[in-house]
Amino acid sequence: MRYIPHTQQDVAAMLSAIGKPDVASLFSHIPETLRTKRPLDIAALDEAALLRHVSEIAGHSRPAMESLSFLGAGLTPHHIATAVDAQLARAEWYTSYTPYQPEISQGTLQAIFEFQTIVAELFGLDVANASMYDGASAAAEAVLMARRVTGKHRALLTPGLHPQYVETIETYLSGQRDHAAEEKKIEASGRVSLEQVKKDLDAHDDVACVVVQTPNYVGVVEDLAPIAKLAHQHGALLVAVTTEPLAFGVIVPPGSVGADICVGEGIGLATPPSLGGPGVGLFAAKQDLVRQMPGRLVGETVDKHGRRGYVLTLATREQHIRRDKATSNICTNQGLIALAFTIHMCLLGKRGLQELARINLAKSEYAKAQLERLRGFSLAYSGPTFNEFALRIRGGKPALVVEKLAARGIFVGVADGENLLIAVTERHTKADIDRLLEELDGACP
Amino acid sequence: MIETRQLIHPERPIFEHGAEGRSGASLPELDVPAIDAQKHFGKLARVTLAALPEVSEVEVTRHFTRLSRWNYAIDLGLYPLGSCTMKYNPKVNERVARMPGFAGVHPQQPESTLQGALEIMWRLERVLCELGGFRRVALQPAAGAQGELCGVMMIAAHHQSQGRAPSKVLIPDSAHGTNPASCTLSSYTTVPLKTGETGIVSVDTVAQACAENPGDIAAIMMTNPSTLGLFETDLGKIAEVVHAAGGLVYMDGANFNALLGKVRPAETGVDVMHINLHKTFTTPHGGGGPGAGVVGVGATLEPYLPTPTVEKEGDRYFLDYRRAKSIGRLRSFFGNFGMFVRAYTYMRELGGPGLTLATEMAVLNANYIRARLKDVYSLAYEAPSMHEVVFTDRKLKRETSVQTLDVAKRLMDYGYHPPTIYFPLPAVTGGAGALMIEPTETETKETLDDFCDALRAIADEAKRDAEMVKQAPHQTALGRLDETRAARQPILRWRAK
Question: Per the omega criterion (within 30 degrees of 0), is the bond before B110 cis?
Answer without folding.
Answer: no
